[in-house]
Recover the amino acids of this structure.
């Protein structure tokens, strides 16, 4: 179960990039945008449906501006997966300012018997990074290094 | 996306110039090594724009260079080379890339195809068991923080001291497998934590381990100095880098560089080109951290080479000496180094960024290993797994034109997604097997991403650098068995 729709048509899309892969996340507000970008990230790593909500992890991330905050957020999640092998499927954004984010992330430990690893995402990049605000909410494009 | 419409001035059949007038802010012209046909796909991909963007960086000298295997990268194109004056220039982590010191190592053997082909399955299985590979692979050497710190400073020697290789391996590794100036204090706790469990692993993605057969020798004299004696001889190629460690070092320092860009008032056409003056604390810190990651990658390839030798030894019941498994060379594909070059008729200390490019030193250069002084430094250019790989050597012309640099591989043409849509992993596997190539992959979909169709033909790439004179072709080998992470 994850909170992907709140009035928007879709939570995210995965797009092509020659050497790597990109995501476009949507959100009615900036909090949902960040949450959906994180979901998009984990959809690349494994099947989101296979992740159960077994425990939560408190996270605080800082950045210089909203763009770098998004990159820091995704990189922090990549780090947690790479080192602690945690998969997340739900994100509750408690507080988000232009340079600080506090969130509770829900998920479980990676388990080879249960989860298929699709790709090894190694970093979120600033390349072509774009956060837009339109009439129906926010949109962010991020290229990930894999 | 629309085609790139900028001006490319033809110098000759293999050289194309982007004039400084293309974009206000370019400090030097761009220079692309390619055939006319290759330019089409480059225009399609907008890569010349990235070549022009690199020419904005403070202190850049000569040209912003692009090798024929160029493709779109983060900020810097992959296949890009740029040298910055150490006095007033910048260093950019984007000019090195995330996978710091991603590179290749080539081992020779005295075995022939006739001896290896009947045992290829056994051999591939032994290698697969012995060399940790695949998504999220963790190593069989476990290093603690103290060992990690030593490894970052010592590079390949760290592994050799533990019996994983020999002194001779170091002599035929770029920088002897150790970039100086590495300082573990410049490494974040996060980077070290990502690095420790992954030391000595192949990883996934485009990384591989390949058993090859020599198919053609273009220069028998140079080839024999490398121990490549005849067609049908078996070689082993190892392609990997610094794993999650290098990525974290790059991520950490891009963040620092972001601050440096505004602090030093540097104007950039693309945020991913974030950089800092080489002499600034931020620049020096990155160089020290990058050296740690470069050394980590050399340890990685050193350990893997040892396990490759062990596997061969076990399968053929002979010592590695009896199997003649000497290392031909080990080169970095993603690195920045402080080097001396002649610019405008004077000696200049520059920081050469090679991102998806190989150092290619000529004969008699002081840094060309003693055993290759007469012929030039070996350049190893892997193709995709269905085609072939080349061995070349550096030339004098590379010194005068490209800061002693050349191409690094085939260069991706299709995105991973497009490759997967056009071909299935299972089909790739069958097609390769029908051509006598045994493949073992951790993940079938990653196999589709690396299908031949996704890459440019490396033969065309090597022909450009050969005809342009920045490298000389020596030999070509084709795959017999492949392990993909």
């Amino acid at each position: 179960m994850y909170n992907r729709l709140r009035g928007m048509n879709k939570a995210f899309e995965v797009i092509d990039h020659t050497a790597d892969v990109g995501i476009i996340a949507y959100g009615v507000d900036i909090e949902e945008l960040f949450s959906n970008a994180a979901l998009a990230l984990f959809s690349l790593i494994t099947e989101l449906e296979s992740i159960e909500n077994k425990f939560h992890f408190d996270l605080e991330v800082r950045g210089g501006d909203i763009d770098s905050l998004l990159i820091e957020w995704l990189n922090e999640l990549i780090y947690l997966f790479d080192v602690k092998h945690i998969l997340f499927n739900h994100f509750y954004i408690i507080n988000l300012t232009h340079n600080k984010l506090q969130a509770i992330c829900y998920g479980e430990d990676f388990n080879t018997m249960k989860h298929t690893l699709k790709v090894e995402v190694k970093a979120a990049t600033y390349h072509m990074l774009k956060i837009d605000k339109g009439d129906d909410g926010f949109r962010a494009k991020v290229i990930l290094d894999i | 996306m629309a085609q790139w419409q900028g001006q490319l001035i033809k110098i000759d059949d293999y050289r194309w110039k982007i004039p400084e007038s293309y974009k206000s802010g370019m400090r030097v012209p761009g220079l692309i090594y390619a055939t006319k046909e290759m330019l089409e796909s480059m225009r399609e991909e907008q890569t010349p724009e990235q070549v022009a963007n690199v020419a904005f960086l403070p202190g850049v000298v000569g040209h912003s260079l692009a090798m024929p295997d160029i493709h779109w990268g983060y900020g810097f194109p992959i296949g890009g080379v740029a040298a910055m004056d150490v006095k007033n220039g910048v260093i950019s982590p984007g000019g090195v890339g995330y996978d710091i010191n991603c590179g290749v190592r080539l081992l020779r053997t005295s075995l022939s195809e006739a001896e290896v082909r009947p045992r290829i399955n056994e051999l591939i299985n032994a290698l697969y068991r012995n060399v940790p590979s695949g998504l999220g692979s963790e190593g069989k050497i476990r290093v603690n923080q103290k060992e990690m710190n030593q490894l970052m400073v010592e590079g390949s020697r760290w592994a050799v001291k533990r019996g994983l290789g020999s002194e001779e391996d170091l002599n035929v590794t770029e920088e002897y497998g150790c970039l100086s100036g590495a300082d573990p204090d410049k490494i974040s706790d996060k980077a070290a934590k990502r690095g420790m469990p992954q030391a000595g692993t192949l990883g996934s993605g485009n990384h591989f381990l390949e058993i090859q057969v020599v198919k053609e020798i273009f220069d028998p004299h140079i080839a024999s100095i490398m121990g490549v004696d005849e067609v049908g001889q078996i070689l082993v190629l190892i392609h990997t880098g610094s794993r999650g460690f290098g990525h974290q070092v790059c991520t950490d320092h891009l963040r620092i560089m972001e601050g440096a860009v505004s602090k030093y008032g540097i104007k950039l056409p693309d945020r991913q080109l974030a950089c800092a003056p080489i002499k600034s604390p931020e620049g020096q810190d990155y160089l020290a951290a990058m050296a740690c990651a470069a050394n980590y990658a050399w340890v990685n390839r050193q350990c893997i080479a040892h396990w490759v030798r062990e596997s061969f030894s076990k399968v053929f019941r002979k010592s590695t000496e009896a199997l003649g498994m000497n290392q031909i060379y080990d080169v970095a594909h993603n690195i920045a180094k402080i080097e001396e070059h002649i610019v405008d008729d004077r000696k200049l200390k520059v920081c050469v960024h090679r991102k998806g490019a190989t150092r290619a030193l000529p004969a008699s250069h002081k840094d060309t290993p003693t055993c290759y002084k007469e012929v030039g430094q070996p350049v190893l250019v892997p193709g995709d797994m269905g085609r072939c790989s080349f061995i070349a050597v550096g030339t004098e012309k590379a010194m005068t034109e490209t800061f002693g640099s050349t191409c690094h591989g085939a260069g991706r043409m299709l995105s991973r997604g497009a490759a997967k849509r056009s071909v299935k992993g299972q089909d790739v596997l069958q097609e390769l097997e029908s051509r006598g190539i045994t493949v073992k992959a951790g993940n079938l979909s990653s196999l589709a991403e690396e299908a031949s169709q996704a890459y440019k033909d490396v033969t065309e790439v090597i022909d450009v650098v050969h005809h342009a004179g920045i490298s000389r072709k020596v030999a070509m080998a084709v795959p017999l068995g492949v392990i993909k992470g």
Q: What stands out?
A: The helical segments of chain A are 30-45, 66-84. Residues 45 and 108 of chain A are 14 Å apart (CA to CA).
